[in-house]
Prior knowledge:
This protein is α/β, with parallel strands linked by helices. The chain has helices at about 25-35, 45-50, 80-85, 100-105; strands at about 1-5, 10-15, 20, 40, 60-65, 75, 95-100, 115-120, 125-130, 140-145, 145-150, 150-160.
Amino acid sequence: MNMIVAVDRHWGIGYKNRLLVSIPADMKFFRETTTGNVVVMGRRTLESFPNGLPLPNRTNIVLTRKEGYRVKNAAVLHTVEEALEALKEYPTEKIFVVGGESIYRQFLPYCDVVHVTKIDRLYQADAFFPDLDAMEEWELTGDSEEQTYFDLEYTFCRYERKKR
């Protein structure tokens, strides 16, 4: 299972249920990486998307504690266990956890690859991704050349769980 996330210098990912910044190349990478695959997200992440709609051309799985919550073109589940059971029908390399903070934290133990766009800037954030650089079970296995978007510098990184 994979995760995909954009983080600032302190692994911040959002503020008031919005992304910290929108970088076109990062959005393109997200779209190209997840299209045709399964995306797993929390309800608030779904609601942060344009018009609060599931992502097109993907199998959308939404986790929420809200009983009776429904969304067209998405499977709505209520526990990590339900989601893991539902995900068994898909190849693990086709599954991407896309946020938010609590979903990332709950699913990280089940993931082997994390695609991280590291933005060399510090933003005001109220949601964070676990600092993979500080976790010995994760290693940086690839990173791009530094990219720029106006005055922002960022790199695309790949982390893999060390073999157990």
